[in-house]
Amino acid sequence: MSKFPPELIRNFSIIAHIDHGKSTLADRLLEETGVLTGKNNRSQFLDKLKVEQERGITVKAQTCAMFYTTDDGKTYLLNLIDTPGHVDFNYEVSRSLAACSSVLLLVDSSQGVQAQTLANYYLAIEQDLTIIPIMTKIDQQSSQPDVISAQMEQLLGVENKDILPISAKTGINCDQVIPRIIENGSKPSGLVEAPLKALLFDSWYDEYFGVICMVYVVDGQLKIGQTLISAYTKKAYEILQVGIMHPEQVVTNALFTGQVGYIVCNMRTAAEARVGDTLYRKDQPIDKPLPGFKPAKPMVFAGVFPLDSENDFDKLKDTIEKLCLTDSSVHITRENSGALGMGFRCGFLGLLHMDVFKQRLEQEFGTETIITTPTVVYKVAYADGKEKLVENPNEFPDSFMTRKNGLSANDAVAVYEPIVVATIVCPEKYFLSVINLCNERRGEQKDIVNIDEDRVSIHYIMPLNEIIHDFFDRLKSLTQGYATLDYEESGYQQTEMVKLNVMINKESVDALSFIVPKDQSQFKAREIVEKLRKQISRQMYEVSIQCAVGVKVIASETLKAFRKDVTAKCYGGDITRKRKLLDKQKEGKKKMKQIGSVHIPQEAFLSVFKVDDGK
Fold first, then answer.
1. Is 18 annotated as a binding residue?
2. Residue 328 phi/psi, 5° resolution?
3. Is residue 212 within a helix (H) or strand (E), and if so which, with residue range?
4. Which of 58, 317, 406, 563 lies at 20 to 30 Å from 52 by C-alpha?
C-alpha cells in the first residue's frame, strides 16, 4: 500500500442506538468501495462473532480499511469502525472513537432519538469529533422523516439541511454517504515528521502469532523491523508484521500518520497488550505518552467457575486471558469458593455483558462454566471510620452495629449501595407503567421531559442493584419493546441491606449468597428457596433448603426423599418385622444424609436472580 497523506485519510465510526441500522449501513459502504463482493458478501459482515450473528447485535467493535476514488481522481483511505449500540458495551464505543476524527450518527426515522443515541452523541462531543447526522430506514411505512428531523434538530443541535436521509436496506441515498464523509469529515491531525506515537486501542489472540494489536498512528510512521517500547510496561518489541484490515489481515509493511492497522510484535500475554497504551520507537523517545482511556468501571460482579475445578481451572484461566484481549473491560481476580472450588471473580459492565462473556467462552473456546449470582459493589463503613468496597457477597458483614457505645474498630455500622441516573425514553401511553416499575424498584423521580407529542424522557435515580437483574426485560415487556434505557453511575447512598445465606442440609452454599434490602429479605428468601426446590433433584434422603440472615432462618423448604417400600414383601406376620425393616431404612437414610452430597445444577444459580414476569 502506498503512503497516504493525512489529508486523504478519513477515520470514522458509526454510532447509534441498538438496532438503528449500523451494521447494515456498514455493509453498504463496504459494497460501495468494493470490499464486499459476491464471494464474501453476507449481511452484517463486520459482525464476525457467532454470538453477534445469533443475537443480531454488535458486541465487538470491528475495523475495516476501504479505498474510494472521487470524480477528480483522488483516492482516499477510509477506516471504518463499526461499534455496538447496547449500553453494556459503551466502553467499546469510547475506545473506537479514540481512533477516529468523525462519526456517522444514525437515528431511526420511525423510532427517533433514543437513550443510547444521546449517550453516544455526548461521547463524540467529549472527544471533539465531527458529527455527520444520518436518518435511516426511510423506506419503512412507519417512517416519520419530518418529525424525526425536528427531534434531531432539537436534541442533537444539528441543522435539517445537514441530515442525510437513507435506507441502507434498499440502498436509497447510500451513494451519498462516502462523499459526505470526505467533504464534511475531519482529517487526522497528527504530525508526519514527529517521533512515532501509536495508540493501542484493541487486540486479539492468534494461535500462531500470539497477541495481535490494533493501533492508530497518531504521529510519525511505523515500519516492520522497528523496535517499539511500551509506555506502560517499558518492554521492547520488534515489529514482525504490519498491515491493515481489508477486510481481513493484509500485510503492508508500514503504517503512516493517521492510519489504522495491526501489528505483530511477539506479545504473548493479555497483561502486555494494555488498551490505551502508547507505543513509540526505541531510538526516538517521547516526552509524554498519549492520554489513553479511562479504565472501564465494572458495574456487576459474579463468580465464574469451571464445572470441574480440579481438572479444568488452568484451561479456564488460559481461555479467560485470551478472551480478555478482545474485551478489556472485564475485571478479573481469583476467587476460591467452598462449594465450587477455584475460579474467578469477574466484573462486567452489565448483565448482558456477563451473558455474552459466558456464551463466548463456550462458543469460541469450548469452555463450560458456572456463573454465580451477580452483585454490585457496596461500600461498608466501620466504627473506626474506615470504609471497604465489597464486591463479593461472602465478604459482606452478617450484621451491623447500631449502639453508640462499646463498638470495636471492626464493627460494621453502615452500608452504602451504588446508585445510577437512569434515562428512559418511551411513548407517552406507557408513561404510567414505566413510573410504576421505577417506583417498585426503589427509584426516585428526578424529572420528566416531553421530547415531542408522543414521547417522553424520564429520569430516575435508582439503586444499581435494581437495574442489573431483569429491569430491562420488564421495561421492554411493559412498553411492547418501545422503551429504551441508558444509565450512568451517580455515587452511593446509605441504605439497609442484609446478606441472605443459602444453606443446603445445614451447609452454607457461598456461591448462592445474596444481598438484598432489609425490608425485602423475607420475600426474597421465600422466593429463593421455592426456586431451588424446583431446580434441585430429589435424593434418596431428605434435603433441607434454608435461607438465613445471620443465624436466623427466615425461609425453609424440604425436598422429600425417594421412598422405597421395604415392607412390600412382608405378607402378614408380627408388626415388629415391618418396624424392624423401617428402622433399618431410617438408619440407612440418616447415614446417607451425613455423607451424601447434593448436586446443584447451573439452572439453579441462574433462577435465583431471575424475577418472574409480573412480579
1. yes
2. -75, 0
3. strand 210-219
4. 317
Grid coordinates belonging to 475: 421495561
Rounded to two decimals, the pTM is: 0.70
Q: Are residues 325 and 389 in the same domain?
A: no
Mean pLDDT of the chain: 82
* Whole-angstrom distance, CA of residue 61 vs CA of residue 440: 36
Which of the given ranges, 41-45, 50-54, 164-168, has the highest pLDDT on average? 164-168
82 annotated among ligand-binding-site residues:
yes
> Do 555 and 419 fall within a single domain?
no
User: How many Cα atoms sit within 13 Å of 103 on the Cβ side?
Assistant: 27
Q: CB-based contacts of 512: which residues, under 8 Å, 6+ apart?
A: 339, 372, 373, 502, 528, 532, 600, 604, 605, 608
Do 489 and 505 fall within a single domain?
no
16 is known to lie in a ligand binding site: yes
Q: How many domains does the chain have?
A: 5
Residue 523: how many CA atoms within 13 Å on its side-chain side?
A: 7
- 83 labeled binding residue: yes
The answer to whether residues 107 and 152 touch, using CB atoms and an 8 Å cutoff, is: yes
85 is in an annotated binding site: yes
Closest by CA position to 400, among listed 493, 465, 496: 496
- Amino acid 401 reads M
Are both 542 and 416 inside the same structural domain? no
Cell of 261: 492497522
Q: Are residues 231 and 351 in the same domain?
A: no
Q: Answer yes or no: do 387 and 518 share one domain.
A: no
Which element (helix H / strand E) includes 412? strand 412-427
290 or 84, which is more confident: 290
Question: What pLDDT shows up at residue 407?
Answer: 65
Torsion of CA 377, 201, 11, 130, to 10 degrees: 30
Host domain of residue 72: 6-184
Summarised one tens digit per residue, pLDDT across range 356-415 is 888 888 888 888 888 877 788 899 988 888 888 888 888 888 777 665 555 666 778 889
574 is in an annotated binding site: no
The response to whether 139 counts as a known ligand-binding position is yes
Statement to judge: residues 177 and 74 lie in one domain: yes
Q: With 70 as the cut, is the pLDDT of residue 40 above it?
A: no
Are residues 465 and 429 both part of a single domain? Answer: yes
Residue 132 belongs to some domain of the structure: yes
Is 86 annotated to bind a ligand? Reply is: yes
The answer to whether residue 287 is domain-embedded is no
| CATH for 461 | 3.30.70.240
Supply angle C-alpha 38, 42, 45, rounded to 5: 120
Looking up residue 339, the CATH number of its domain turns out to be 3.30.70.870
50 is in an annotated binding site: no
Is the CB of residue 348 less than 8 Å from the CB of residue 354?
A: yes
